Queue: 4 jobs
Job 1
Amino acid sequence: MPLFPAYDETAIFFSMFDEDQAWCRATVKPFSLDEMEWKTVEHYFQAMRFSDPAYRKKISECESIGDVTRLAKAWFKPKRKDWRKIQTTVMTRGLYMQCQMYPEMTEALLETEDRTLVENSQYDYFWGCGRDRRGENHYGKILMNIRARIRSNQED
């Protein structure tokens, strides 16, 4: 087995925080989900770490992603005990809802055809590919799953 996985020449590498990407989770594209309004997928995702509705609301009202991150990483606020199990589901729900509300996001995703989508984070081995490209790339997998679902719905 080689030290690094083979490089996929056709893959699309991106950052989930690159606001030039249609599916950036930090771009302001308001949507409603779980009886609340969210400015970005990042607002939704970070707020869902907590069970406390008041704290979720506080996160939803943040003006900047920096403020969202600061509140979400607060050590004194207990996180949901099931967070590790549900975090990919939460991200999927937020991104899928945005695709339903923003046709340009859906179009951009469909324009990627069947190419592999890779979140190119050097440091994140869960959401991204990591420095050595051995990461789990959950963000890319979620986008590819949403793309497949959208296509399936269009065929029906």
Job 2
Amino acid sequence: MGWRNLIVVGAICAVAMAAVVDALRGGQSAEPVASSASANKSADRGDRLEGPDVPAPAALAGSLVLADQDGCRLRVLSLAKVDLGDPGPTTGCELWASPKGRFAVVTTERTGARRPRQLALARLGADADIVTDLGQAVGVPAWSPDGKRLAWCVGGGQTVVREVGTGAERRAPGCSPLFASDGSLLTLPAAPLDARLLRDGSTLLRQAALRSGLETDPDTPVQVMAFDTAPDGRIAVSLLVFESTGSEVFLELWRGSQLESSFALPKLFARGNFRLGGLVRFSPDGHELAVGFAAGEGTVSFVDLRLEQVSVRSVDQQGFAWSPDGVWLAIAKGGRIEIYGEVRDAPVYSLPVAASGLGWIPPPEE
């Protein structure tokens, strides 16, 4: 077992401990946590946040985009001013901010992560508002690195790719869309047991390659649960294997066409029947990997692939986001937003804001 196996297994063990605690609590749904008094004060209007754990103005770059706890209204928290902007449009409590910060995709209804989402494109800033309805999506949408395109699955094995500037749309094969750092579109085939990864409609990783790290019968059905890519081209894939004795999830780490490691994850489920391995996500710099059940649902652990250690163990979150450079990590939990620095042993800042969904966008371009 290589070092990557060891560090990720350590993260999984931390997630497992939290999942057991969660089960003992009765598996309650992860509902948004009530705001503290100071958070309510800030939620009433655009207001500067204050307190000993709040960063000084401009200590951090960019802004946090969030859905607040008072109607899940879209809001932007400027880190330059440490000011929570005025409430924007009401959302369904889920959001995906553009990497360039001008727009965000939001849900318009609360439907649950396993049901089709009704999406809309929202403008951020002083004139925040819904720009246009995007229709229903299966799964979550994805932004291109330059913020000029977004993609979402409409079912039937088809993904819509929309040019934000013109509104022009085209269809691409596959679902679970994700843009790689070079701008290419990665998707999964429509057939659930067609375990391949597609790039712009062509096969990037074949089923035989994905099976190469498994000690199973070659006829055993497999399915890709989740995947993500790092800026340097590394790929993390969680693979569901349907054994006769029960299904098992394997986490694979790839560098190009070379498999670096593959190992089984504990058979664990979080609230809402989400399975461990349903979420794998690289930080913007590729140095960190989040492993969990689902974004905004259940516990997530963060693994530092550069330092070969678990960086943040098992946090029950309503959303998380890295700073655009990957140095800082913000996690919405327990009615606050905690921000971790380059050393992740404890949060550096704690903002008195209760949030559902979280994004970190760069400062406005000059």
Job 3
Amino acid sequence: TSPYRYVPLDDRLARLRDPILFPGLSSEQPSGVTTTPLPTDRAELQHRARGDRRTLINRPQVPTIYPPLAQLWFAGIAAVTPWSAGTLGLQIGSALLAIGVTAALAAWLLRHRRNPREALWWAWCPTVILEAGNGAHVDVLGAALILGAVVALTTRRGRATSTWIAGVLIGAAAAVKLTPLVLLPAFMPLRRHGSGRQRCRPKEFRPDEVRQLWQAPLAAVATFGATYAPHVLVAGGLVLGYLPGYLREESGGDRAGLLRLVVPDSLLTPAMLLVMGAVAVWAVRTTRAKAPQHAALVMFGSLLLVTTPSYPWYSLPLVALAVLSRRLEWLAVAVAGYVAYAGTSVPPLSGYAVAAALVISLALWRRQGQTTPT
């Protein structure tokens, strides 16, 4: 059964109900809920997305928002977890995955003649501890796949397949959580691999190098589309899940809060696209072939600074990229997510404002150090 075909309370899924997730509804009792298209009105949408005391699942009357590989991860964990264990299986699986990322980071650092202990910035980061093993958020799987893409492109030098593998892994990461799609410009370098700072003109590339500029993005898009294709055949437009409703639901509040300080709401979406487009152009022009981690970090971190989400687990891929790039100031963005999530007397946007100021200041300081004659 495609996870996009029915909403959780639909009676056609009654056989899947267990006493933990459905404490107030047995498999024999009818819920009275049938899967129907989402309403377009925001008030009706929020009414449909409300909770139900019969189940612990939030938004049980709307389709899932999670992409196909996230669903595959959930199904795989559920297959080996007794229902009586509840979410413990998912927590254990996420914790083991986080440990695996630690080992992969340490091996990559050692291979690149860096101190493998730097991997502890990931392993001991409170965001990883709280949101992977404890919160069991699927973002840790996205972080692992992004790390795999960087490892593939930076380790297997001279092999054309490494670019394709990196693209497939980025596409897979996007099929876990959509946000890794913003990393594609980091895998389209207009500079050769090397230590020099001189930009290369396109005519300086050999034909095979020009082709490689598009290999990773093409592989990523193809992989992403392939994961959705079977569900489109079965569920049609329902594969979008609750994503359109989620975007409408989250359109207010502190979303894109930093931009709201200087841009009216009517221009907010164009302003977000303009900022991210400018960062993407920077990434394409400045990232080096075979070394995408720094541009990927800036792309992903910029997305968080532009959208200012109040969900700190969104930062899990950012933590891994910060370790890879040795740009630990970006961890302030992860802290900002907790400030926004806490909703205390501290202004929610203050964390993102401080993080943005810190990242920009250190970037300017490094640039000044690079341009100062010695």
Job 4
Amino acid sequence: MLEKVFKLKENNTNLHTELLAGLTTFMTMAYIIVLNPEVIRGIGESLPGKGMPVEGVLIATILSAAAASLLMGFLANYPFALAPGLGLSAYFAIILQMGYSWQVALGAVFISGVVFFILSLARIREMIIDSVPHGIRQAITSGIGLFIALIGLKNAGIIVAGGESTFIALGDLSKGSTLLAMIGLLITGVLVALKVKGGILIGIILTSLIGVLPFFNITQAPSGVVAMPDWSEFGKVFMKLDIMGALNIGFLHIIFTFLFVTMFDTAGTLIGISDKAGFMQNGRLERATPALLSDATGVIISAGFGTPPVTTYMESAVGVAYGGRTGLTAVTVAILFFLSLFFTPLIRVIPQAATAPALVVVGSMMIANITRINWEDFTEALPAFMAIIIMPFTFSIANGIAVAYILYPLFRLFTGRGRSVPILAYILCILFILKFLYVGV
């Protein structure tokens, strides 16, 4: 049955690899289960009457991730996992700070998901992906690699916020969690260098175990094993979205922002990871429409469940690096998310110091695509370079894509090579300029 549904042999993989790839991906992104509710609560606590029930959001986070990943696995047969995006959660929290209710914010998520779905069904998003020039496509992969690595270094405490003059700085390397992450980076790097099957997953497990030692005392014993979810709390957020409130004319820019970020974050992640995994054929992503429809449907579902929109996770690259090549990897992630409903005490045990090295290692793998950019052609080189650095520096894949889409057509046009650029690229260039001028970042 699995062979018939997921075509394992055709994709040069097997059940064992797919299951462990799913487990590896899940372990690197399980942080969202705890972090997503915390981000929203952090804002809500300072706004009386605006906060969301934390336990309800936690359950909604898990169910949204499970449902969306399941769709991706079965409909598109790709090893990409989805969950509420942390950046989108932060923007959701900002909307609450602006004085809007979380019900109206969820309504905006729903509307953006519907528009997202229509654009995917009409294959407009697929056309956008196909219009990405070769050099920019390689830049997206490399930029995501830097972005993943930056997140890993930040989670490890190796890089911290600096002063006004430096923005970022080197962290306290003698700190227990940071030292543990560096040990984990060494372990994971050695295992990958030796081509040990499952080296990334083994690195996460070994680092977690080392964290138990008295010198570190970071990996804490779980408070329990099984904890039943509080469904009454989930009922407080389930289907509480206010669509009519979100249709208010003054809320259109917020709907557009949700649409913009989810659409281009997903497109960038799909391009970046697919190119690295070999899914791109002649510059086109096979089964792009079902993949995009899965993502769009996931956004709609997440609004109904009561959480900020889901997006395709960059951490999927970790599972792909392990060898995941089919939707069985995504389905495995979905099942693990669902099971985590009942094992949240165990999920909280894995420290960020143990998963951070995996992100850095995978980032180093993805940056290799930078050699495929034609650095001799400056009309391609500079937009590609800007895409690469804008992604990590602004913590946004969408911003990196937008800047590249603005620069590339203009450079080609002003150097007499404008006819080599598709019309759609010029249209997107104008839309991105208008977006930055009138909506902002």
